[in-house]
Amino acid sequence: QVQLVESGGGLVQAGDSLRLSCAASGRTFIPSLMGWFRRAPGKEREFVASASRSAGITYGSDSMKGRFTISRDNAKGTVYLQMNSLRPEDTAVYYCAATGATMNTYNYWGQGTQVTVSS
Prior knowledge:
By secondary structure, the chain is mostly beta strands.
């Protein structure tokens, strides 16, 4: 069983930066994908970014691509999300997620970390 634990959320002002971290434990494989999702109050869960085992990167939107950077360390089982130029609309609970070794379905989820951006 894989456990994902996020850290790094908090309250910041618009224009500030935050770095989220996610550590995977209990794994016996390297996930095909590790990624970040977010859920803002009253909204559906939204894909933010993913990084494949071979370092292929995907972002959920052009806005995210221009301000966020995802990276992962396969050896450590960690994934990071560097968020710059934060906006109030980035306020959400951010979730780390991981797939299995060969599948592209996110089967493993962290508990979430709150990011609040004040204007």
